[in-house]
Amino acid sequence: MNANTVAIIVAIVAYLILVVAIGIYYSRRNKSTDDFYLGGRKLGPLVTAMSAEASDMSSWLLLGLPGVALLSGVPEAVWTAVGLAVGTYINWLVVAKRVRNYSQHIGATTIPQFFSKRYHDDRNILSLISAVVIVVFFIPYTASGFNACGTLFASLFGVDYFTAMIISAVVIVVYTTLGGFLAASTTDLIQSVVMTIALVVVVFFGIHAAGGWDAVAANARSLPGYLNLTQGYDAATGAAATYGGLTIASTLAWGLGYFGMPHILLRFMAIEDAHKLKTSRRVASIWVVISMGVAILIGIVGNAMIHSGAIEELAAADSQRIIIRIANLIASNGIFPALIAGVILAGILAATMSTADSQLLAAASSVSQDFARDTLGLKLSDKSAMILARGTVIVIAIIGMIWARNEGSVFTIVSFAWAGFGAAFGPVMLLALFWKRSNKYGAICGMIAGGAMVFIWKYGVRPMGGLLDIYELLPAFLIAIVVNVAVSLATSKSRTGATQRDMEKEFDTVMAMK
Q1: What pLDDT was estimated at residue 324?
Q2: Which residues pair with 234 in a beta bridge?
Q3: pLDDT at 102
Q4: pLDDT in the model for residue 174
Q5: What stretch of H or E contains 430?
Q6: What pLDDT score was predicted for residue 450?
């Protein structure tokens, strides 16, 4: 082991010690499950903004997005980024304040609990279905984070992928189970800073190593369709691809997913003052646009570095490792550059951890609060509930590790889980906040329809190809909306009675809040 490798390890270990220390610090402030799951609604605007976006972007930002840009050119990466940027802004603009006020008014601390209380579902059917959706889709999402960690260490040090993945997962579980929501949110803020440093350093070094900006631009122009927003590049054939209007609409549909992401919606619910959401929105929107733009540029720069001989050519399956290859090249220039490379690689860990911790918390709350307490009606003390919550984090993490035991594409795993949440929760959340006639029957049917259609479209319809080869989130989201509205209208008078009037009165009260 040479001095450069030691320097990288020192930087990464220092970062891991820091996040565990934060978990230990906040463990003393978790007096109840409300503190553990929502931080007592005490988040400031900066922490709210950056923890939401860091937990959103995940390893997909530093691994998946550059890999897509490197392999297939600008179209898929850019249209995906545009959809996410627009979705981010609209989510902060129209959803954040309403869900924060509504959840506080009805005393909800989790997303499933919000749905049950919003629709006066005394039998907690919505809470149960929501908890199942969260567990089903968060396990692969969390697995994608563990996958990224294992990929990172296996690439760096030549260690066994599975062993590296387990070690990384253990660190995430330790500080999450200790510190809960406040620890996760605070580390997410730090992680967003580390991710930003990693992006900036990599892109500037990469441009220099590729021979300058002119060389990067010339390489991109030389690849057929690489910079064309309606074509794209086929790395397998070296020819231009086709990227039509339907495919663009399908890719833009990524933005719809934001309305149903539990780990992002929880940040809205946790801010200390709803009036400060405007500041959070501005910070979050600017950071998202810049970070995704730089991530795409890294893919383009990486392609130029390969063609200039600065780094070795990557197989298609390894395209998501481009930032790791660039970091290794930086480290080869001496001890100080190796420390910088260590920070970059810690940025990849940060991207992974910032999402995995939030997902584990959301999944744990669904099991211990929404299933055990609300659905089963178990009478648990705060101490017992905390033990159950922490135990759930560990169990879900173990399942996620089993899921991630084999390497795979981070982009592919995340896209499926993203579609699941977007279609199952997004329409229900939007109608809950903007249409007072929506009722629990519509919400239940819409949630089931959206979640089921993600599976049906991805595995049954999309493989047919042609016009049906579109991202499953778009058709599933639209079908969930239609089902929710249709069932709500059909049952508005005959099956809900006074409950419907009570819900509409409560809705009007919340909407009138300043």
Answers
A1: 81
A2: 239
A3: 92
A4: 72
A5: helix 410-434
A6: 95
Question: Which of 322, 282, 328 is closest to 304 using CA atoms?
Answer: 322
For residue 220, the Cα-to-chain-centroid distance in whole angstroms is: 29
Closest CA to 477 of 419, 416, 436: 419
List beta partners, residue 233.
240
CB atoms within 10 A of CB 17: 11
- Residues 96/43, Cβ–Cβ less than 8 Å: no
CA dist., res. 207 & res. 151, Å (int): 24
What is the number of other CB atoms lying within 10 angstroms of the CB of residue 499?
15
Write out residues in the chain with pLDDT < 70, as ranges: 1-2, 23-24, 26-42, 58-59, 155-158, 175-185, 187-188, 317, 347-359, 361-362, 365, 367-378, 380, 382, 406-412, 493-498, 514
Q: ∠ CA(288), CA(289), CA(295), 5° rounding?
A: 85
Q: Which of 134, 104, 142 is nearest to 425 (CA)?
A: 134
Contacts of residue 291, defined as CB under 8 A and 6 or more positions apart, other chains included, come to: 53, 57, 61, 195, 196, 199
Distance CA(149)–CA(165), nearest Å, equals: 6
Alpha carbon distance 38, 257 (integer Å): 22
Residue 111 CA to residue 356 CA, distance in Å, equals: 17
Q: Which of 414, 431, 397, 433 lies closest to 473, judged by CA?
A: 414
- Tell which residue, 315, 316, 320, 314, has the closest CA to residue 299: 320
Token couple for 408: 């795979």
pTM of the predicted model, to two decimals?
0.80
Q: How far apart are CA 365 and CA 353, in angstroms?
A: 18
Residue 501 burial (C-beta neighbours within 10 Å; 0-12, 13-18, 19+): exposed
Element (H, E) at 239: strand 239-240
What percent of the chain has a predicted confidence (pLDDT) above 70?
81
The Cα 212–Cα 196 span in angstroms is 22
Do 289 and 85 form a contact (C-beta atoms < 8 A)?
yes
pLDDT of residue 301: 92
- Over residues 465-513, the pLDDT tens digits come to 877 888 899 999 999 999 999 999 988 765 555 677 888 888 888 888 7
